[in-house]
Amino acid sequence: MLTVVNEDGTTPSGSSLLDEIVREGARRMLAAALEAEVNTYMAELAGERDGNGRRLVVRNGYHQPRKVTTAAGVVEVKAPRVNDKRVDEAMGERKRFSSAILPPWCRKSPKISEVLPLLYLHGLSSGDFVPALEQFLGSSAGLSAATVTRLTTQWQADHAAFMDRDLTQVDYVYVWADGIHLNVRLEEAKACVLVLIGVRADGSKELVALKDGYRESAESWADLMRDCARRGMRAPILAVGDGALGFWKALAEVFPETRKQRCWVHKTANVLGSMPKSAQPGAKKAIQDIYNAEDRGHAQASIKTFAKLYGAKFPKAVKKITDDQDQLLAFYDFPAEHWIHLRTTNPIESTFSTVRLRTKVTRGTDSRNAALAMVFKLVESAQQRWRAVKAPHLVALVRAGARFERGQIVERPEAVAA
Description:
This protein is an alpha+beta fold. It contains 16 helices and 13 strands. Helices cover 43% and strands 17% of the residues. Strands 9-8-7-10-11 form a five-stranded mixed beta sheet, with helices on both faces.
């Protein structure tokens, strides 16, 4: 079909020809995918027939057209309709076909829902979503201020349910902890988001808790961990965190048996910050030699070398490492495959690198809860892309009490139990 194009490359509707081509391609691909899904469903049930030999599952035209907001813009689609005459014997109700690609309730793709909390955290009010996204998507369908308000309310309920879930059936062997200062809609200028991410016995990573706190204080951390313990969380074998004294004090109170590992990224920044810039490149390399050493013995030797090289001129910088040596080298008592995961809080830092925003604090009666809910939804979305730790089968052995030397197992759980 020929389309009239203006001199500036736009069509009479105001959108560019390129955008219309993309949307038309998306519409055709979605229609083809829906047809293929229905055809597969009917082919699998072709043998289902009634007493007269008639098929129980047949095509029945199309549903009414509906508009769906996608990353390619708003596309109109007519979903195929299926007449399924089978009856669920257990429930006594007719069975129904439900598309996994385009559920009946779907009016926008999940990617669009991921954009909304990000825009909100950047300071865009719900009333500004329509004009802002209409320019990008070509339509405001499904993105009204009322829709955003409903989503915000639902996300707050999701976050509240998450923070009240039962933890007796999960086991976090390792945890990373950090206080993230986002400076967005948290009302108090010194407020931060306290984050716990754990590794389950199968090696998978999972968000444990996310709550606002004040200056990463011991009481804020203790309140968070007491709540986790109340809901059935077991004491982790190892906790990884930065130098915030509040967290370690709270950990000693709630989970005193948990071992401590200080984050080398935070420690390195802290040490280099107390040295002149001219000395920092060499000092950084010397610090890397410590946490990249092949075992604890070589790491301890590297610490002595670091102290010898910089102790005379920068005693305070050297003291920051020598005073925390035990907590800095704790990861060497665990499987070598896990060392790269355990010596830093990178799982938290990398997740929040896209969430850490520099926007003005927005005050409001409900901004705090809304902002926390938005952060929660962004982390929940990111969690789907988290990879398990290396050698995940070794995590269960760590929980069982296996002992490791030089990164290798030397005592199996059966021996420990005996």
